[in-house]
Amino acid sequence: MDAFDEDAKAYYLCDLGTSLSARFEQLGDLSDLEKAIAVQQEAVDLTDDDHPEKAGYLSHLGLSFQRRFGQLGDLSDIDQAIVVLQQAVNLDSDAYDNMANWLHNLGVSYNNRFRRLAELSDVEEAINVLQQAVNLSPEDSTTKAVCLNSLGNSFAHRFGQLGEISDIDNAIDAMEQAANLVPPSVNRAIACKNLSSLGNCLQIRFERLRELNDIDKAIMVHQQVIDLTPDGHPAKVGHISNLGVDFSTRFLHLGKLSDIDKAIALHQQAINLIPNGHYAFKFQHLQNIGIAFLNRFEQLGDVNDIDNSIKVMQQAINLVPDGHPGKASSLNTLGESFHIRFQSLHDLSDINNAVMRLQQAVTLTPDGHADKGLYLYTLGLGFQTRFEQLSEVESLASAINAYSQAAENASSSPLIRYSAALDWAVLCSANGTPSSALEAYHMVLEMIPQRVWLGQTVSHRYKELSNIGNVVNAAAAMAISAGNLALALEWLEEGRGIVWGQILQLQTPLDDLWAKYPDLARNLQKVSIALQTAGTSTIRPSLQNIDLERPQLTAEQEGQTHRALAAEHRMLLEQIRSLDGFENFLQPKKVSQLVDASTDGPVVIINVHASRCDALVLHCYNPLEPILHVPLQEFSVEQAERLYKQLNVILRGPSTSDNRKLMIAAIDTQTPGELFQSILGSLWSCVVQPIMLKINGPVTSGLGDCMPHITWCATGPLAFLPLHAAGIYGTEEQMKISDSVVSSYSPTLNNLLRPPPTYMENSPKVLIVSQPNTPGQHPLYGTLTEAVVIMKHTSAENTIHLNASQATVTKVLDEMNQNEWIHLACHGIQNTHDSLRSAFALHDGHLELQSLMRTSLKNAQLAFLSACQTATGDENLPEEAVHLAAGMLAAGFPSVVATMWSIEDKDAPIVAEAFYSSLLRNMGNSEGNNERLRVAYALHKAVKQLCEKVGEKNFVKWVPYVHFGL
What we know:
Blueprint: H1 3-27, H2 30-46, H3 54-72, H4 75-90, H5 99-117, H6 120-136, H7 142-162, H8 165-181, H9 188-209, H10 212-228, H11 236-254, H12 257-273, H13 279-300, H14 303-319, H15 327-345, H16 348-364, H17 372-390, H18 393-407, H19 414-430, H20 434-451, H21 458-468, H22 471-481, H23 485-495, H24 498-507, H25 511-516, H26 518-535, H27 550-577, H28 591-594, E1 603-608, E2 613-618, E3 627-631, H29 637-650, H30 672-695, E4 709-714, E5 727-728, E6 735-736, E7 742-745, E8 766-770, H31 782-791, E9 799-803, H32 809-818, E10 821-825, E11 827-829, E12 839-842, E13 845-848, H33 849-853, E14 862-866, H34 884-891, E15 895-899, H35 908-921, H36 934-950, H37 955-958, E16 961-965
Parallel strand pairs: 1-4, 4-7, 8-9, 8-10, 10-14, 14-15
Antiparallel strand pairs: 1-2, 2-3, 5-6, 11-12, 12-13, 15-16
Helix pairs in contact: 1-2, 1-3, 2-3, 3-4, 3-5, 4-5, 5-6, 5-7, 6-7, 7-8, 7-9, 8-9, 9-10, 9-11, 10-11, 11-12, 11-13, 12-13, 13-14, 13-15, 14-15, 15-16, 15-17, 16-17, 17-18, 17-19, 18-19, 19-20, 20-22, 22-23, 24-26, 26-27, 29-30, 31-35, 35-36
């Protein structure tokens, strides 16, 4: 045969192979694919390397090997695909015009091998090769769109492995570019593929960030793809199934039954459309519907659903060999289904089957795979259930081992690692292995900042914290039980006030860093300022078409910028901590550093947990033992909750009061005063008195001649109760804490470590805001009286009074920057639905808590919040102090006076008069020469005067006034 005949034969053989491969795609007959590979290999063998068509023949052959790998899972096929596709790229010929295509095919093969072996080098090479393909593609071409889509998939794969948010953001960015390059009017098939991939990545990002807009947009995009795809098109099955996955995912987040019903219906529709013989294709859809049946069973408890889940998952597993990349996932789901059916029907064979399947899933999954941690975690759950049923020591050990491996698996998502560590800790705590429990809780604390991530909005971080609950209290209780008081205190500090701690960290002075490494200090300061603003952004993304709506793109870009800033902040911290002398830079503080918070008197941290309640008293009296432990044996979580409910009964009324008057509830068996007296008596007997008995004497003796000072840091429901007013009232031998100590509160110890206010000998600059007639609110005539009495004590040249219409949101924020003291006499609103919208009601709108979070004041000294509920907080986040007083602390005021509930309009001027009279009269000459505590002592005297005027048993009037900070 001459050269011309060989060239012609090679051409026709390759063309035949392409047709056979296409028929395989349509009908699923594996023999067509086998024949395609054979004839394409012959075409390659007949063609010299310098022939212009050789690269194309190699590329077609490589694609066929790819397809067979997808069908059979034989590693040799994907290895061979990479070899021949690399040969196509390496050929130096006129085929260079198609180099973007050859590179694209090679990159996809690396992606496919990565999905099987989880070798990071494969996905790194895929990204490298596909980026080259994008760069070589003509602008505004379908080729560029196809390459961008595959590049996006590579970023998504690497995100699954490493969990770097920038990767999934890059994936979505690439896919949006692809979608915008090729709209349906240009090429419907490619447009559908790009949009489908975009929807998949949005769904993936939702599972990590839990931003509802992502899953809503994924549903919208996947529905659009289905509408664009004609019936009978082979890709429609996958599109329908993708939409089903979206609805399943949203169901797990919102719990709407209609979502899971839609998911199951869509998956069943997809399965019904699969042609006979497409086993690998059917496998995936059986897996999807099996998961959906499992999810619906957990919601409704219908045994038919869990039986169907087990049935279809078993069918799916039987369709593919062990080497198939999805088999481990199906085994894991099947194991979960057996486990959950056991919990419902208690058939021992189910839990044994569960453990067997879950072990198989772990065995089939290589180390380093992104899902290995998930499979280990579900295996741990299975072993734990078997231990609880059979009391097998081996099962307990196996559960602990699986949990610990899952928690330590760096490739897993923060949620999986956190969940595994928590279950590990709880299991060890309940079964008498404290050392292992402490190790597990250490991992829990380590994972919380990754769940409550700086790269997300403050609102989202608070949602995550509400799901976390009281795990920090459990960890501290375990450490106390183990006798490690220092660790307990450090954990309580690290795990409370997390969001405020993040904000304070962004505001931390960098003096030492500026002195030695000014460039790093400059970069960190720049990123920190940007992050503080980004975290409280109120932009809400649009759900309109991604091609047309600019607001959606703006919101997407803003979110990506925020996450990129968080990643840069983390990298800067890692770089700084690698430098000599900066190893502990902005790390959680140890007791040796935290003890300085007790400079002005002991700080009492009270941990409330179901297992035990304790007070840890931090003090400076004995450096060798800076923590005193006070077991609160007569107190419990249940009692704290009961007292909190009783207080709410007394204060029952609208959450956003129309005025500063109280709405006192009628109580059948007791008057409000009697119930309040009972609450304060219980707090004294069970909490405060045991603490005072322990610290009276040595710890308080070093405070000079003045009344001792205590700062309270309470947890759980106790954080909402008035410890500063605890006492036995109404008897001849009254015992009240306010008679023996001056009380302050602080959300965290770190707040007490900030530089104290620098009070000037001359009169400070004072801003007074009064709102006697706020539009839309009930009049507060007492606010004007309040302003007048304050101005009697301040100098006219250093006082600014913004009254009524003068007090706009912008003007008040501007003046806060110019003045050292601020007094706000207005309506305060505690928003029970969205705590970040809690606000001061000013003339033209609300000065909200989230706005305060964006504020950093350099000259601030004192904020007096003479408004309702400025220290009330969110009962769902007791450890976070989500209230206006904490917002003022974060804005830079080291000392804040606030109210725990509504105050009477006529009482506020009395407190203000006494407070400022005492504070300014003793300028530079405060009680006991403790300049730092002037505000606390002045408020103590002012509240005492109010108490004398209104009557001691009129608790609701004088108890709400509290001091925060220094």
